[in-house]
Design goal:
single chain, 4 domains, disordered N terminus
Length: 296
């Protein structure tokens, strides 16, 4: 396992070597240390056992439709958390055939359609979620992301703001609202971020990322806070690294530093937190960057 972790670090360093010579050294991604979470297959043991149990129950023929739909949905969520998105889509589709009014299923399928670049299909899915359940908060986030990535920043602002107002203490809602405002009303974005930062909860790691965006933390201070916030090599450690690398990447991309952003998006994915929005959209951003390179 240690050899595997070292290999990941070497790979990540090679990805960053060219970029490091052109920018100030960032402790999180310096030539002496690339911070990554340990990838231990045993971390997913519980999910794998649950998948096996649900699969056994689904073999029973005398389940009611709603029971079978619920089991397909639960197994789909487990597959999604393991990065097995094709199997997850199959289960979500089966659940929808059995019970067509499952809002959460439309939300997952909408995300997959968005990641595939099917903006119209994903928009229809998120609209269906909100038709079935107008209080489904994450459908507002996901629909906002749809609008954001097609450049409809005014519509994205409306949904990002609805999502933010549902919990102003959540820094991730604040960060996405800020990223959209950089496009929608750039002269107000940082001032708005500073104002919203006052209401954030310190229980969330993302609050530190907001303070970094505001220039209140240096790269070195951010790294120290990572080590203090979570036990190294724990699942939570992988999660906060995924978040940190993603939002650092978005910052670099907004500054026009494509090589640095590309490397950071790859580092966000290297921690393999498959069901985090930051992992999903690191993958999405990389596909866009590759497409842009081909077109150029």
């Amino acid at each position: 396992m240690m050899n595997y972790t070292k290999s990941l670090c070497v790979l990540a360093f090679l990805l960053l070597a060219a970029a490091c010579s052109m920018r100030p050294t960032i402790p999180l991604i310096s030539d002496k240390n690339v911070t990554l979470a340990e990838q231990n297959p045993l971390l997913h043991f519980d999910q794998e056992v649950m998948i096996a149990r649900i699969s056994q129950v689904l073999l029973v023929g005398n389940l009611a439709k709603n029971e079978r739909a619920s089991l397909h949905f639960e197994r789909g969520v487990l597959y999604d958390s393991l990065g097995l998105w094709g199997l997850a889509r199959y289960d979500f589709t089966q659940a929808l055939m059995l019970q067509p009014k499952l809002a959460a299923v439309y939300n997952y399928l909408g995300l997959y359609l968005l990641l595939d670049g099917d903006y119209d299909g994903s928009l229809d899915a998120f609209n269906a979620v909100l038709h079935l359940d107008p209080n489904y908060e994450y459908a507002y986030l996901n629909r906002a992301l749809n609008f954001y990535y097609v450049g409809r920043y005014g519509l994205a602002q409306r949904d990002f703001l609805t999502f933010y107002e549902a919990d102003p203490s959540d820094p991730y809602r604040t960060l996405w609202l800020y990223l959209n405002e950089l496009k929608y009303k750039p002269y107000e974005a940082k001032q708005n971020l500073a104002q919203r930062a006052k209401g954030l909860s310190n229980e969330f790691w993302g609050t530190n990322i907001v303070h970094y965006y505001l220039g209140e933390l240096s790269y070195a201070e951010l790294q120290k806070k990572i080590d203090n916030f979570a036990v190294p090599y724990s699942p939570q450690y992988a999660e906060i690294l995924t978040e940190t690398y993603f939002y650092l990447a978005k910052q670099q991309l907004n500054l026009g530093k494509v090589d640095e952003a590309t490397a950071l998006f790859k580092l966000a994915m290297a921690n393999q937190v498959f069901n985090f929005v930051e992992y999903r959209f690191a993958l999405f951003e990389l596909s866009h960057l590759r497409l842009n390179n081909v077109q150029e």
